Amino acid sequence: MKTNTLSLLAFTGALFLMTACANEETNSKQEQAQKPDTKGLTAFVVNNGATRTTADYDGSGLNFYWTEGDRLWVNNGTLIQDNSNNITDLLTPNPKRSDAVKRAATARFYFSGTYTAPSYPVRYTGKNSTVGDKVIIKDQQAQALPNDAAHIGEDGDCGTGTAINSGGGYNFTLDHKASYLTLLPYSTINFSAAVKLTQVKITADEALSGQFNFNDSGIDLGSRPAPTPANRSITLTLSGGGTNGFVIPVAAAKESNSPIMVLPPGTYNNVSIEYTLYDQFTTKTETIKKEYATLTFVPGKNKKISTNLQMRSYITPMGYWREFVGPNTNQALWYIYRGDPHLDQTTIFAAKRSATSPANICLGGIWVKKAAKIPGFTGSNDPFGVNQIYYWETYRVDGYSGYLSNMNNGNLGSLTIGIPANISDYYFIPSVFGYNVVDGVSIKSGDGMIRYWVGTRFYGHMVQGNVFAVDIPPAVPSATIGVGCGYSTNIMAYWQAQ
Q1: What pTM was estimated for this model as a whole?
Q2: pLDDT beneath 50, residues of the chain
Q3: Residue 41's pLDDT is what?
Q4: Helix (H) / strand (E) containing 16
Q5: Where is the signal peptide (predicted)?
Q6: CA-to-CA distance for 265 and 217, rounded, in angstroms?
Q7: For position 390, what pLDDT does the model report?
Q8: Residue 136 neighbours by CB under 8 Å, 6+ apart
């Protein structure tokens, strides 16, 4: 426990109270008490090296510090808030992050009145709080930086203590009475740095937010509000949210993110935690939900939850055209004409160029039947009995407009919109693009538009290869599927047929 020292001064009606804050780690480093510089007031002075209401996670618990705007209450029969304090004068930068909120290891709070009793209860009811008997746990919380919970003081953090007369002064320990949730999300998918964790939302059957009564023992859980759709969840926005947020490391790393929430103690049922991801490169978003039957939060304690964020993912190798890599032209036409292709514009997935490449979030693709589910499937000829490997002009892409064009006799395939019912008979061709990606690593989302290399050359053009292609509105009036051509030096995905 952190110990707080309350020293009686010679001033009439002036008391010198040293305060600190209980940490989960129960160490007790103390510093020399500071002398008051305001006559006629009682000074509550923090003399411990780890104190109040911002926090960072050190791997085993939360370390707390005082921040600007913190206030303190003394209960001498009437709740009295400090007249002033010297936190502003003592603020120092966070040694781990220069851009984090400044904090103070000690602080001095000044109160009017005379204090001579053997003990006094003290309370902390939140940053900028104007009442000493209520605490508000906010349903909308915001954390600006990884592992820097400067927000908890204004989002519901609270604490109590009892100052005991020890002869020449008073000693007390300030115990935290809210509960804390530190999340350590990561993903073995290995997301690109462009993929951000923008917010985290926790939902339960019981009220997680709202106004609670507060007394010398802490939060009165009997005053918990009745559950409503609004108060059954808390949303923590990260680094502004929206299109920005924290990175997602490949292994749990407190320095990389560590979203920290403050919430009321208690046992909660049917809990879900939703992690919202946004890809700044592809502009796609995905929410990953984890569910728990019950979670219990203890007053003054921090619960750590480390989660491996997973979603559907594909490795889509990319590069220049390569002969015999992917289906040949005949096989491509079997997939198009007999594979019952379905255009999927709703499936969200992660895609990367290799097992070691970073992943981007992409949208859409094509479902086609597996070769084993297509009667008569062969690479020797197309579904109409013609070997199209050398006579492919019927199926081509207009190289100027980029649209799939029926140049001769209308042999373009048709598309069904949606996901097939008997999905086990099909495989998914992700909608991804690699060309015009400067870094050579990232993947663009085609949003349903597709270009994949076919493993045969475009007949008569030594610099071009065949391309499996899907065009969708607004690029074309209606979705179209077929085989086209492209310069072999373009970067496209290699078709991994099944």
Answers
A1: 0.85
A2: 1-37, 47, 49-53, 55, 391-411
A3: 60
A4: strand 15-17
A5: 1-22
A6: 13
A7: 62
A8: 126, 156, 210, 211, 212
Tokens describing residue 333: 């036409």
What was the pLDDT predicted at 398?
Answer: 35
- Report d(CA 142, CA 339) in Å as an integer: 49
Type of residue numbered 485: C
Task: Please state, in angstroms and rounded to a whole number, the distance separating the CA atoms of residues 348 and 361.
Answer: 7
CB 125 within 8 A of CB 135: yes
For residue 121, whether the previous peptide bond is cis, meaning omega lies within 30 degrees of 0, is no
Please count the residues of the chain: 498
> How does pLDDT run across 208-241, given as a tens digit for each residue?
999 999 999 999 999 999 999 999 999 999 999 9
Structural contact between residues 350 and 312, judged by C-beta atoms closer than 8 angstroms: yes
Residue 498: CB partners within 8 Å, gap ≥ 6?
A: 370, 371, 427
- DSSP per residue, 418-432: S--SSGGGEEEEE-E
Contact between 365 and 431 under an 8 Å Cβ cutoff? The reply is: yes
Question: What pLDDT shows up at residue 15?
Answer: 34
Q: 295: which DSSP letter? A: E
Name the region of 128 (left: φ>0; alpha: ψ -120 to 50; beta: rest). Answer: left
Two tokens at 42? 């009682």
Per the rule left: phi > 0, alpha: psi between -120 and 50, beta: everything else, 421 is: alpha
Q: What angle do CA 158, 160, 161 make, to 5 degrees?
A: 150
> Smallest Cα–Cα separation from 427: which of 486, 366, 386?
366
Instruction: Classify 260 as helix, strand or coil.
Output: strand
Cα 20 from chain centroid (whole Å): 32
Which residues have C-beta within 8 Å of that of residue 333, sequence separation ≥ 6? 382, 383, 388, 395, 483
pLDDT of residue 323: 81
Nearest to 251 by CA among 300, 307, 169, 305: 307
Question: How high is the pLDDT of residue 62?
Answer: 66
What tokens were used for 308? 């491996």
Q: Is the C-alpha dihedral spanning 146, 149, 151, 155 positive or negative? A: positive
Q: What is the pLDDT of residue 61?
A: 60
Residues 269 and 204: beta-carbon distance below 8 Å = yes
Please tell me the distance from the alpha carbon of residue 430 to that of residue 441, in angstroms, as a whole number: 17
Distance CA 498, CA 493 (A): 15
What pLDDT does 168 receive? 53
C-alpha 447/C-alpha 454 separation (Å) is 20
Q: List Cα–Cα distances, 122 to 20, 77, 454, 468, in angstroms.
A: 11, 11, 74, 72
